[in-house]
Design brief:
The chain has eight helices and no strands. It is mainly alpha-helical.
C-alpha cells in the first residue's frame, strides 16, 4: 500500500516517524489562538434517553485531566495499556497538547463573546480566501452557538 499522507496523533504519529514517514505538518506549529479543538456533539434523543450521561461524562473528563496533572506516574500506569505504549512513553503522547481546563472551557464556550465563535469566523474567512468558500460563511453564520448547559458553573 502506498499512502501519500495521513492525519494522525500520538502514539501513532511516533510509530510512523520511527518507520521513516516524514512529517508534513505538525499542529503544534499552530498559534495558540488557532488550536485544533475536539468538539463533543450529542444528539438530543440521546440526551433524552440518558439524561445523566452527559453530566457524568463532563465530570469524568475534568476528573481525568486533574488525575493526569496531579498524579502523572499513576496516570502513566493506567494509560499505557490503553494507548499501547510503554509507561515511560505516556507523557510523550500528550506533548504539545493543550488540555483545556474548566476555566479555559468557559472562556472558549461561554460568556458574551466566546473564543470559539471568533475562531470559527476566522477559520471560515481563511477557508473562503483559500478556495472560494463554497458558501461556508453563510453556513458558519447559521450554526447555533455552543451549548454550555452541561459545563459546570463552578470549577469542579
Amino acid at each position: 500500500m502506498n499512502i501519500s499522507g495521513a492525519t494522525t496523533y500520538e502514539p501513532v504519529a511516533s510509530r510512523l516517524r520511527a518507520r521513516g514517514v516524514p512529517v508534513l505538518f505538525d499542529s503544534r506549529e499552530l498559534p495558540r489562538e488557532r488550536p485544533i479543538l475536539d468538539v463533543l456533539a450529542v444528539r438530543t434523543d440521546a440526551l433524552d434517553a440518558h439524561p445523566r450521561g452527559l453530566p457524568a461524562l463532563v465530570r469524568s473528563l475534568f476528573d481525568g485531566q486533574r488525575h493526569l496533572h496531579e498524579l502523572p506516574i499513576d496516570s502513566a500506569y493506567r494509560l499505557a495499556p490503553w494507548l499501547g505504549v510503554a509507561r515511560g512513553d505516556v507523557a510523550g503522547t500528550f506533548r504539545g497538547l493543550r488540555l483545556i481546563d474548566w476555566a479555559g472551557q468557559r472562556e472558549w464556550l461561554a460568556g458574551p463573546n466566546p473564543r470559539l465563535a471568533t475562531a470559527t469566523r476566522g477559520l471560515a474567512t481563511f477557508m473562503t480566501t483559500l478556495n472560494g468558500g463554497y458558501g461556508l460563511p453563510s453556513v458558519v453564520a447559521s450554526l447555533p452557538g455552543p451549548v454550555t448547559d452541561f459545563l459546570p458553573l463552578e470549577a469542579p
